[in-house]
Amino acid sequence: MYNYWGKADELSWHPLPYHSMDVVAVADQWWAHSPAIRRSFSQETGLSEEQTYAWVMFFIALHDLGKFDVRFQIKNLNLATENYKTSLPAGIRTKDYFHGDEGYKWFVLESEDLYFIDVDYKKQRWLQNWFASVAGHHGSIPTNTEPNLPPFVDESITSKDCLARQSWIQELNRIFLEPAGITFVDIPTKNPPLLLAGFCSVCDWLGSNREYFDFQQKESSLEKYFLSRERNALKALNDFGLLSHIATIGGMEALYPDYTPQNTQTLIDRLSVEQSLIIIEANTGSGKTEASLAYASKLLAASLADNIVFALPTQATANAMLERLEAVAGRIFESNDNIILAHGKRDSNKHFKRMIEKHKQSISLQGDFEAGAQCSEWLSSSRKRAFLGQIAVTTVDQVMLSAIRPLRHYFVRSFGIGKGVLIIDEIHAYDAYMYGILEAVIKQQKQAGGSVILLSATLPAYQKQSLCSAWGTDAVINEKGYPLILQATDDDVHTFALETWDCVQEKTVEIELWKTNDCSISVEQLKRIVKAAQEGAKVGIVCNLVDDAQKYAHRLSEMTSVPVDIFHSRYRYCDRMNKEKAVLDNYSKKSSDRGRILVGTQVIEQSLDIDFDWMISFVCPVDLLFQRMGRLHRHLKQRPESYKKPRCTIVIPNINDADLTEDPKKIYGFHNLIYKNTRVLWRTQYLLEQNNAIKFPEAYRDLIERVYAKDRWENEPESLTKLHEEYETEEWASKWISKGLTQADTYFMDSEGNANALTREGKMNLSVIPVTEDGGVKHFLDGIPVPKPNDKFDRELLSQNSLGVPDSNFWRSVLPKSQDRLHYLSMVKTNEGWRFDYDGGYLLYTQDRGLQKVKK
């Protein structure tokens, strides 16, 4: 078996048993230095740490069993010829031989005759399931056991391969299982540990890195070789920032020593420190983020987690969160070098970067299926490598991908999340389709031994019940207190409420309604907005549509010299980062007192620490409206005379009885297409019309529960009730469609397009990349050449220069045909900006306004 190569280049090679032990050395050292990983695996197997270790190392050492096959070995013809001591037929196909899948077939086909003679059929199936997890290290867990014997190959060759496989398994049995006092019949009769596939993949990636594991020929026993590689493995794990060195005892005081806890932060020390699902409900701006980090740090300090994954609704909110996390990272971990923002400009670990650059330039005998190449391709996207950080800041979509089994390497994400604490902000902001996947994420997080913290201003009781059911507890939740922390442990639920409101910031928001037939803002109202800004007010306008935001920003800028800013989602990502920073600078607690106007979309309603004196919002569901109101008077600061009290103006439609009877959807137009739940929009408007002020925090529980109540209101039109029944049926179907994705076994490549299509329902945005062309050569707007479509390592560059537009008839008719799901929009530089002409108008891109439609 030492004559079989596991790694090779054109000049040298590395024996397969040695490569396998390189990977085991990484797993061994990670296991030794991570109590959370040890606990996770042992908790799932139900065995002692010693026996669990034996099984895990045994199977990880077997991960490349499929390389003991002539179809793999012939990828290096000279070595193969020397090994088999015979000439090999030229017709042996190597291109379609995938050693992970084929190794699984050999394990199944040969098991009863060669390896597990005394093991009954049921135990064999469990052994095979464990092996499938490690055999999937190239992206997909194998299930196909249909024989695929090498054709036209002499029996002496296949017999030699079979003997090598048998010898290897018996050798690993001697090294790992026998010292633990177990045999094959002792395999746990349950599914393999959830984290095994991801753990094996990352260990294989590191164990394939020649900077740490150089090629060697057989000089010593396997045991001695293994011991000699432990130091290399430990150095690799430390260099890549994969070992967490906790530097805190955890809690609010440890993380924020100069700060007096408020609101739910005062409850953190009352929570039991154990694997949990935590739901924190508290008013906007009350410090839920700090509370969640304080509890997460307690779990880390108790060795119940290795890392923190912080997920937010959008890229913009993820960017804004990074700075807040960096401020405390050094108090949680001894080093904060491996805090990674998913899809951001922040440089990541230098060793990651060097590995990526190395494999961009190298070609392996194994091609795309060489572990180092797959690792580098995976790491080249910060959206993915974030999950290998000590603190990952990412979007909720990326977290959802960890539970979508059709996606290649989904289990690397689930490994990164499962060994840590998952924090999801704005948990109320997701639809039924997304909840179907998020509930699967919560379920697998519990199975893996990790914890989950969910943050929201408030959640309807039925949603809290659903989330707790996903965790595995069916305790009835009827606590009405607010603010509130709910802790679901193994099989029970505990709630924690404040005894007094002394540390809760109360706020009363004055309500004003602008009613129109078409939900628009009039010229007179725009003049009033301008006047407020001229008097020193910071005015925020939240539109539901990008086109509306661009329209009103343009009109307002023509009416005043006061700065009019705009922020939405239709920017290239690299420009959006700069826009976001400008918004935070101009509307934060420390910004100047000069009046300004910000016209934005939903991107400014969540997790951005910005502050307005007056807000105008278009109609939306009550919980999202409250999120928007959370940007009003967020901080204690000097206000203009007319805006000493927070005021929110809501643009709503006139409603007549005929519309309610005939077609309720028509009342809210495009706004209904966005939010879908017509009854919730109508109920929100009805309550707004009954109140000239809303008092927080009482309104969070009271009004939201009323709007989302299942029972029909007495004064509710029957047409709305019927429409809501149809809506709930569609939501139920959406949820089960998404749940099906978490159980499917058809695989998709982990591309940006597929990833987006899997985590969102219905038509997704079209991905547009504005470019310039010179002689048929495409460049991004800043002059950088566009990478070739098959360049796997520069996909991040494409993402940085892309933007999204609705998948509508208009955009489909205007945009060029897509290439690999990307629409390259060839634009010409003009005095206005970059321009693309079409019949009836043109598209204009500027770094200030984004991509906008202009009619001729």
TrEMBL record:
Q: Could you tell me which InterPro entries the record lists for this protein? A: Cas3-like_dom, CRISPR-assoc_Cas3_HD, CRISPR-assoc_Cas3_HD_sf, DEAD/DEAH_box_helicase_dom, DEAD_box_RNA_helicases, Helicase_ATP-bd, Helicase_C-like, Helicase_Cas3_CRISPR-ass_core
Which PANTHER family does this entry report, sorted A to Z?
CRISPR-ASSOCIATED ENDONUCLEASE_HELICASE CAS3, DEAD-BOX ATP-DEPENDENT RNA HELICASE 47, MITOCHONDRIAL
Q: Which GO terms describe its biological process?
A: defense response to virus
| Species whose genome carries this gene | Methanolobus chelungpuianus
Q: What is this protein called?
A: HD Cas3-type domain-containing protein
Q: Where is the HD Cas3-type domain?
A: 9-206
Is Hydrolase given among the entry's keywords?
yes
- Keywords in alphabetical order, please: Antiviral defense, ATP-binding, Helicase, Hydrolase, Metal-binding, Nuclease, Nucleotide-binding
Keyword Nuclease tagged: yes
Entry superkingdom: Archaea
Q: Name one GO molecular function term.
A: RNA helicase activity
Q: Which family does it belong to?
A: In the N-terminal section; belongs to the CRISPR-associated nuclease Cas3-HD family.
